[in-house]
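Researcher: Re-running this chain for the archive, since the previous output was lost when a drive failed. Same request as before.
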Amino acid sequence: MDLEAIYENVERRDIGSTTGAQTLSHGRDESKNLKHRGSRCLVLISVGLGLICVLLLVFIILLYITITAERDLIKSYKNTVEELNQTINSLQDKHTDLTQKNLELETKVKNLTAEKDQLQRDFDSLNKKGLVNFFMSTELKNWSDSRQYCRDRGADLVIINTEEKQRFISSVVKERVWIGLSDTETEGVMKWVDNSTLKQGFWLKGEPNNDGNEDCIELNYNREKSGWSPLNSWNDLPCSEKKKGICEK
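Model: Regenerated structure tokens:
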């Protein structure tokens, strides 16, 4: 073998060794690059998943807040509706009560109107007969002093000798009053202040009873008293009792 062939073989070996080393080094670099790129991808994936988790958590929180707010709003609406229903029911009850009271008032007005019309008719009838010259004393006095009160004013205690007059006076007086009737002169003989004898009386049930020397007569206004009526309202009392009197000119 000549020298040229030996040199050629040596050069080939050197080139092969160099090329192998370079190839090995390049493979190692590529492996490192792949690992590096893999790590970066893993980091990016992790970061992406983390962001997704954060966004999902934010979404869940916002959704919870929204649901809670809507639930509170619905609860508030329900409470408002219940309050409105209670108010409506209360107003309906009040309306029913007011309607009932209105009906009662209408009935009372009708009754009072009828009573007023009857009083007006009685007044007109009495006026034609000159029977409206009545007035009430202003002080509480015994029977004699009440009579004197009337006489000082050109009148006397009233004489009631007809049903019409009795009804009229019973309708206008609102308290117990003396009338011009007594049996002070003769026990059991009732006489009017004009000295005429009683012919028709309008007594309460069981009266006159002369219980305890009761010689003077009152017109009793107590409409709740048993047996009271416009034609049954007289009562005998001791003449010393003090009350107002009804005078007649």
